[in-house]
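Backbone description:
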Amino acid sequence: MDFYFSEDIEFLRQNVRKFVREEVEPVAMRIEEKDEIPAHIVKQSKQMGLFSLGIPEKYGGLGLDMVGKCAIYEELGKTHNGFTTLIGAHTGIGSVGIVEMGTEAQKQKYLPKMASGEWIAAFALTEPSAGSNAANMKTTAVKKGDKYIINGSKHYITNAVDAHVFTVMAVTDASKGSKGITSFIVEKDFPGFILGNVEDKMGLRGSHSAELFFEDMEVPAENVLGKEGSGYVNALKILANGRAGLAARNLGSSKRLLEHCLDYAQKREQFGHPIIEMQAIQHMLAEISKEIAALEALTYKVAWMTDQGQRVVKDAAIAKLYGSEVYNKVADLAVQIHGGIGYMRDYPIERYYRDARITKIYEGTSEIQKNIIAAELKREQKGAAK
């Protein structure tokens, strides 16, 4: 294992870094105020291939492995998190299911348009009574001839407003519990698909989350993703696959905050000296640097393990958990270093502070990650005892 990127990944990373600094950052406040990502930014992102990161070249994507995806996610994390989430949700949990579990026919139909960004992707698992307890979902799918009829609802679905393709989980056999859940590829123009209320969130402006309602929605039988009854397992695999990517995005945001802190601490003077000369500030900067170094090593270790085909259930959960903790801690220290100005909406620090909070909740809460880690420790202990 080494931490050097290939020449191709490094070239793409530098281009994304330049795009983020020169194109996205200047409109970050506009995204925040209007709650929308400018069309020219989305268009440029498509042209750069940012919507195709993990989609195989065969279907028009860049075909990056997990280390490569994380390198790009890290750069994207250094700008407005709403923009980053649009890309991350599409190339992560929105696409992974079809890439990893889809039939060849499904891949041929969906992946080229997803790679170009013509069709944005989303992942629909969460329901009012099935958040962390996903096995408690109420959405049902009943097979009738060559179609499934789906009824129910989902909420807090990232990219719901912009997406055309959804990976949707529904119960096909309630008597089997979690083994009676099936995953489907759903298009927004399927009969019975209804977009509900768009959520007004605390952060991630420009990234739109909404409710989905299914009223006798008709889904072709060929749109079952994987086997009937494998939906719960599919969901766990999809979420686990995305955790290194989330850690990388948190890493990028934390690094950007450190840059802001260093710049401000060198310019801001108190008692006749730049505050960076004060030990209290130095200790905060050192703490931030320490946490970033640890998160970086962990993130790319998990990404590398994923690419090697190793079991990463525990390590990915640790990366997701620790990444969210680091980002929140760094954001809090950044506000402290900046003082009053860090609390003002016309400066980016308070935006990062708000955006950081959701990372402990979405795609598996911190408590769920701890449950996963504990369960894996138990499994490993049993294995060692044999």
Observations:
- The chain has twelve helices and ten strands.
- The two ends are 29 Å apart (CA to CA).
- The chain has a mean pLDDT of 95.
- Strands lie at 120-124, 140-144, 147-158, 163-171, 181-187, 193-198, 209-220, 224-225, 269-270, 273-274.
